[in-house]
Amino acid sequence: MDISSPSEGLLMQVPVHVGDALKQGDVIARLDLRPLERELAISEAELLSARADLRIAELGVQDAAARLHRREDPRQLSLGAISEEELMTVRYENDLAVAKKDAAQARVREQEARASLVRQRLSDATIRAPFEGVVASRYVDPGRRIQAGEPLVLLLSSGAPQVRFALPEEDARQISVGASAWVHLAGRQDPLEGRVTQIAPEVDAASRMILVIAQLKDAPKDGSAPAGSVVRVAPGPLHDSGTKPFAKTSGR
């Protein structure tokens, strides 16, 4: 599985190499955190300011409500101690205080959402292994700027070894999931038996090839097939003389 960066940025660290065994959660790469850390500091400061404004608005509502309550006292009204115009003014001030509080609450929610988004981006800037596996390929080096979605490494599951290869569109139509696949290693006489487990549903527009993944039945115990090995893959029965190798892979 290609492990990609969820966001763009300057790549600062790639502390993994081909053949490294990773546990789930291990760091694969880190982007430059400094711009996001500055943005988070600004967001949190603005959030504190928004919360302070909300507290002031809440006090304003309490004060306006208390004044309105005093002015609407039936005894005050019966004695004519307050004019209708003054009562309308106090009611308006109360409504205005409530509106200011609502606006302050909205600003707090906005700043909370912004700070949360920056925290998520900051977390995404450290790319971690989503599962236990072995690094089969490393595509990038520190110091370059990468785009969101750009693959960083190829990570293969620590389960049964797999082989990734690409086929021309016409050849891919001749195989199906479950088909046999024989993997030939350089310097090894006997091929390894495998089964096709995945076939990409779409053709790559640029190469007109289809990605196929096969799972090996048994991994060689002599270390002759480390992650990242280049191999030849042939379909069909082992002794089919008409079988030709039809792909190469950089998988394991």
From TrEMBL:
The lineage of its organism: Bacteria, Pseudomonadati, Myxococcota, Myxococcia, Myxococcales. GO terms for molecular function: efflux transmembrane transporter activity. InterPro entries: Beta-barrel_RND_2, RND_pump_MFP. This is Macrolide-specific efflux protein macA. It comes from Pseudomyxococcus hansupus. Gene3D superfamilies: 2.40.30.170, 2.40.50.100, Helix hairpin bin. The keyword Coiled coil applies. Residues 164-218 form the CusB-like beta-barrel domain. Residues 220-252 are annotated as: Disordered. Residues 94-121 form a coiled coil. Keywords: Coiled coil.
